[in-house]
């Protein structure tokens, strides 16, 4: 019997369609959430204790999407991956340090700028790399490897570059990253290995879940630092725009100087410029003052806007073969 053309779409197709729309509107949703949290912070202050558990949900979803093929690029093309990951943990932290050294900021906010710069790549960068006609496999590998390196690299970088502003609990930050990032990713990988049918049903919904979770995180972070937003918001926004812009530009430059092809240059540029700002916000709330999470909250909004603009520009210019 012929299929009924009016029958409902399979759940996976519905989830994919909703996720695509959620991703399209994500920057505006997060921007609106930030505006609401600044205007009426009270109702969202109770979300603060949930920030880290919410981030663990995103990392669980990342783990469920990882496959062995995502790491095959490590063996096939170690040089581009090494260049990208080094650029990630060199360009952004040093840029942040330079910015906070020349611009007078509250110590907690200065630490927050360095913290978001020292965070690993964000998963949204993989989508932007795809839209920009970049090397998606390299982008995914960079996100995965930088995330796995983060428990060691991020605390050490923050200690080195931000220790003069506020005391840094390096070991405590290491433990937090393991708890927020490594354990949920490991659980996600195990779920994919032993319960693949369950994971196949859940994965299409993860983009929508991620948008919802990051929105809640922004509500909590901005509400907790609403007074700082009103006092220093414009300055911090300018610093964040500069940090993101320099990361995108120098990421591309580092890949070009290293002789990578155009598709890889685009992937490295986007990967370096787009950070896991949610993780930075969670670490800032846990180990520093609430104001330290403000740069991460603003970065969460801005890097999706700038990434979308850059991806749209590159999408109309297919990379030429070498």
TrEMBL record:
The chain crosses the membrane at residues 25-44, 50-69, 81-103, 109-131, 138-161, 173-191, 203-223, 229-255. It is found in: Membrane. Pfam families: SBF (PF01758). Coiled coil: none annotated. GO terms for cellular component: membrane. It is a multi-pass membrane protein. Keywords: Membrane, Transmembrane, Transmembrane helix. InterPro entries: BilAc:Na_symport/Acr3 (IPR002657), Bilac:Na_transpt (IPR004710), Na+/solute_symporter_sf (IPR038770). PANTHER family: P3 PROTEIN-RELATED (PTHR10361:SF28), SODIUM-BILE ACID COTRANSPORTER (PTHR10361). This is Bile acid:sodium symporter. It comes from Tsukamurella paurometabola (strain ATCC 8368 / DSM 20162 / CCUG 35730 / CIP 100753 / JCM 10117 / KCTC 9821 / NBRC 16120 / NCIMB 702349 / NCTC 13040).
């Amino acid at each position: 019997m012929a299929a009924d053309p009016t029958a409902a779409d399979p759940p996976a197709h519905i989830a994919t369609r909703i996720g695509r729309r959620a991703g399209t509107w994500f920057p505006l949703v997060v921007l609106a959430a930030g505006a609401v949290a600044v205007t009426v912070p009270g109702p969202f202050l109770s979300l603060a204790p949930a920030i880290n558990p919410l981030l663990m949900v995103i990392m669980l979803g990342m783990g469920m999407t990882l496959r062995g093929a995502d790491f095959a690029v490590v063996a096939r093309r170690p040089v581009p991956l090494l260049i990208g990951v080094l650029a990630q943990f060199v360009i952004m932290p040093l840029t942040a340090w330079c910015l906070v050294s020349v611009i007078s900021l509250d110590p907690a906010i200065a630490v927050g700028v360095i913290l978001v710069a020292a965070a690993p790549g964000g998963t949204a960068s993989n989508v932007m790399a795809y839209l920009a006609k970049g090397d998606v496999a390299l982008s995914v590998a960079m996100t995965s490897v930088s995330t796995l390196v983060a428990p060691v690299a991020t605390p050490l970088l923050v200690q080195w570059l931000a220790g003069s502003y506020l005391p840094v609990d390096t070991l405590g930050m290491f433990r937090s990253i393991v708890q927020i990032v490594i354990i949920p990713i490991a659980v996600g990988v195990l779920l994919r290995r032993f319960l693949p049918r369950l994971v196949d049903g859940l994965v299409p919904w993860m983009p929508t879940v991620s948008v919802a979770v990051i929105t809640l995180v922004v509500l909590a972070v901005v509400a907790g630092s609403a007074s700082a937003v009103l006092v220093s918001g414009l300055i911090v926004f300018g610093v964040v725009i500069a940090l993101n812009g320099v990361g995108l530009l120098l990421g591309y430059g580092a890949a070009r100087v290293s002789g990578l092809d155009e598709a890889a240059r685009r992937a490295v540029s986007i990967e370096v410029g787009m950070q896991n700002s949610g993780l930075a916000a969670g670490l800032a709330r846990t180990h520093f003052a609430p104001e330290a999470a403000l740069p991460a909250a603003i970065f969460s909004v801005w890097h999706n806007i700038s990434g979308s603009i850059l991806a749209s520009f590159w999408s109309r210019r297919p990379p030429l073969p070498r």
